[in-house]
Design a protein that fits this description.
Structural class: mainly alpha
Order of helices and strands: HHHH
Distance between the termini: 8 Å
Shape: globular
Number of strands: 0
Number of domains: 1
Number of helices: 4
């Protein structure tokens, strides 16, 4: 849990900023990102609702891996899009560690 907590501290605020922007900028050419945003929003709600307890996020991370093809960054996107996938992958890995 400590590793996941550290990953959240490093990434959550940035993800909260980046995910809506990436959805707006790339959603037209990458409609799957709208689904990523919905899952991230659900994941974020669970994290905040649990406070210091470990939230059950296994289903959300499983769905994110499917939608993103294991966080594979498309070749035609910006660095912010790539950063979102990298941060989500780091959270996923830390959650399952």
């Amino acid at each position: 849990m400590a590793r996941f907590t550290e990953a959240l501290a490093r990434n959550l605020a940035t993800l909260e900023q980046y995910v809506p922007i990436v959805a707006r900028v790339h959603g037209g050419t990458h409609p799957e990102f709208h689904h990523v945003r919905r899952i991230f929003d659900a994941l974020n709600e669970k994290i905040k609702a649990e406070g210091t307890n470990r939230p059950d996020l296994a289903a959300e991370f499983s769905e994110l891996r499917k939608i993103t093809q294991d966080y594979t960054v498309p070749g035609d996107v910006c660095e912010t899009y790539a950063a979102v996938y990298n941060m989500l992958a780091e959270l996923d890995e830390a959650y399952h560690a």
